[in-house]
Amino acid sequence: MGKVTMGVAVVGSAAVCAAAALIMRHRMRISNRCVTAADILKELEEKCATPASKLKQISDAMTVEMHAGLASEGGSKLKMLISYVDNLPTGEEQGVFYALDLGGTNFRVLRVQLTGKSSIECQEFAEVSIPPQLMVGDAETLFDYIAAELAKFVADESEKFQLLAGRQRELGFTFSFPVMQLSIDSGTLIRWTKGFSIEKMIGQDVVVHLAEAMKRQGVNMRVSALVNDTVGTLAGGRYGNKDVVAAVILGTGSNAAYVERAQAIPKWHGPPPKTGEMVINMEWGNFRSSHLPLTEYDNKLDSESLNPGEQIFEKMISGMYLGEILRRVLLRMAEDAALFGDTVPPKLKTQFILRTPEMSAMHHDTSPDLNVVGSKLKDVFDISDAPLPTRKIVVEICNIMATRGARLAAAGILGILKKTGRDTVRDGDIPDTVVAMDGGLYEHYTEYRHCLENTLHELLGDEVGKHVKLVLSTDGSGIGAALLAASHSQYV
After folding, report:
1. Are the C-beta atoms of residues 324 and 354 closer than 8 Å to each other?
2. pLDDT value of position 18
3. Which residues in the chain are classed under CATH 3.40.367.20?
4. Residue 149 Cα to chain centre, angstroms
5. How far apart, in whole angstroms, are the C-alpha atoms of residue 199 and residue 146?
6. What is the pLDDT of residues 13-25, one digit of tens each?
7. Bridge-partner residues for 279, per DSSP?
8. Is the terminal CB of the chain with fewer CB neighbours within 10 Å at N or C?
9. Does the active-site annotation cover 108?
10. CA-CA distance, 326 to 273, in Å (whole number)?
11. 176 is catalytic
């Protein structure tokens, strides 16, 4: 019995010692919480640093990849897709034209009445959410859903829209995913992005899928132009401003398009474009360089994504991912620095629960007690009564991630300007250059937008910078698609 009692005593003593050690470590962890959180924050800031010298290296790398992508198919991570748009709208187009803009978790349908005098007499649009299950289901179900909503929209066409006698309705289809364009009105899907994943559609003509769905839904309409959202934004911007030479989308995803000299496209083997120019869809979201300031959070997000190893640039700068990167940083701080107390909030472990609009709202919080930050933490993560120092840390992380994204986007634009010779004074001349911008991230995330604009001016310098403007083109991709449907109408 004595031995047994002694054994129990020894075990009990060991358990007490272990418990005491755990308590001591816990107390030490709590006492060092702020220091540890500060260390994590400092490390994040260092790894996300984007000094001008690094941004210029990134822009140079972008330009090199642009040359390679124009030289041959597969020559670069940048697809540099030929859009077959070699004549942008002139302003002389007339009639009623439709657009369908599919490029994220919502799609838009739009109609415009063109007067032939470089103006849009009237326009109407509707926005429809796509159920998440359709984004990963099958092609027929997705396109039937889209065509059914388009049918409802066409049925509501008012008398102020005058379809010219004897004409079939025509549509510009903005499909904002990587597509190998075969002509102005056909193209095969290369891969999905932005959370879509319908594998059987890869390699298939997206216009055929839409046309078949419209026929099933009783919609009598011809797809006159298949365009990427950036190509549509470029067309929409050029319609009202002849200085527009490029377009950038910063929304759920990100991409860029620009006007290139036909002679600078070695892989183009078709007839010479009438204008001597061709719009190139860069698919810049897939850009990657050793100079990009990637962190552990980026690498893990990428490895756990639907498309690991792809769209690295997009995952660092676009609206779909900024909030998720913020969540991952907060989770690390909760786990390693007890940022939100002894227990890690369960919802903090849910991927993509924090959207970029919530991040933007927290970043823009100017109240003394950061009340917006507190309410967002409560609404999204069920984190109640986060103290002010914690809220300040959240805002600082927002600033670090938004600043990195915006400055990288500016470096990308600089790469385009370098490729087209608009980044410096040449022969004593500085051309006025306008980049049409579209997307909710650019439009609504004010801190992001201002940082991007200021960074581009910083990189260009005062002399050139004052000749380069970024202009918001609200729904530019949809209007641009309708305009391209008009300029490529079967009746022209």
Report:
1. yes
2. 53
3. 51-81+244-431+433-466
4. 24
5. 18
6. 555 455 455 445 4
7. 259
8. N
9. yes
10. 46
11. yes
pLDDT tens profile 253-283? 999 999 999 999 999 988 888 889 999 999 9
Q: What is the pLDDT of residue 272?
A: 85
- Rounded CA-CA distance 375/386 in Å is 9
390, 339 in Cβ contact below 8 A?
A: yes
> Residue 6: is its pLDDT beyond 80?
no
The domain 83-241+475-487 having CATH identifier 3.40.47.40: the answer here is no
Q: Is 60 a catalytic site residue?
A: no
Residue type (1 letter), 432 = D
For 339, residues 6+ apart whose C-beta sits below 8 A from its C-beta are 33, 37, 330, 333, 390, 393
Q: Please check whether residue 348 is in contact with residue 322, taking contact to mean a CB–CB distance below 8 angstroms.
A: no
Catalytic residue among 76, 176, 473, 487: 176
Report phi then psi at 119, rounded to 5.
-145, 155
* Two structure tokens written together for 119: 């103006």
Give every strand in the sheet of 244-250, ordered side by side.
81-82, 277-281, 254-261, 244-250, 433-438, 468-472
Q: What are the phi and psi torsion angles at 261 (to 5°)? A: -70, 135
| Cα distances (angstroms) measured from residue 422 to each of 120, 206, 336, 467 | 30, 35, 47, 9
Q: What is the mean pLDDT of the chain?
A: 90
Query: How many helices and strands in the chain, by DSSP H and E?
Result: 16, 13
Residue 392 pLDDT exceeds 80: yes
Q: According to the model, what pLDDT value does residue 91 have? A: 80
Per residue in 285-297, pLDDT tens?
Answer: 999 999 999 999 9
The string of pLDDT tens digits covering residues 209-266 is: 999 999 999 999 999 999 988 898 999 888 878 899 999 999 989 999 999 999 999 9
Q: Is the pLDDT of residue 12 over 90?
A: no
**Per-residue DSSP letter, 162:** -
Which member of 76, 83, 101, 108 is catalytic?
Answer: 108
Residue of 229, 302, 423, 475 with catalytic role: 229
> CATH number of the domain at 51-81+244-431+433-466, please?
3.40.367.20
CA 73 to chain centre: 24
In whole angstroms, what is the distance from residue 174 CA to residue 438 CA?
Answer: 13
Query: Residue 30: CA atoms inside 13 Å, Cβ hemisphere, count?
Result: 9
